[in-house]
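Problem: given the chain below (132 residues), write out its structure.
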Amino acid sequence: MSMDALARAISPRARLNRTDLRALDVITMSEGLTAGQLADRLKLTTGAVTGVLDRLEQGGWARRTPDRGDRRRVLIWPTPAARPGSPAFASVADELAGILDSYSPRDQQVIASFLELASRVIARRADELSRN
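Solution.
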């Protein structure tokens, strides 16, 4: 798949391994999630996620903040460097935005809706499969 090829190409430039990139993707799509939630979504142990978060923080891609509602937890946030408009991802984001701009506003809504629903189905199915 082309996303795998892109991940392999970005990985060494961003100094992140594939698991780190997967985590960064989840973090940017689910801002403010807990380390436990990230571990669940990545199907990793909390110990493994701690190492991932250490690398992402060290590289300036993510930050941990205390959860004001529960002092035992931390929330994970992407930094500006991790956002689609950042220099690390700008060229791909610009090209994709150009493609999306070629569609009508109504078509863009349909595309966004489809991608959101497809993402939910994939996440749900992955959860189901990992439990069996």
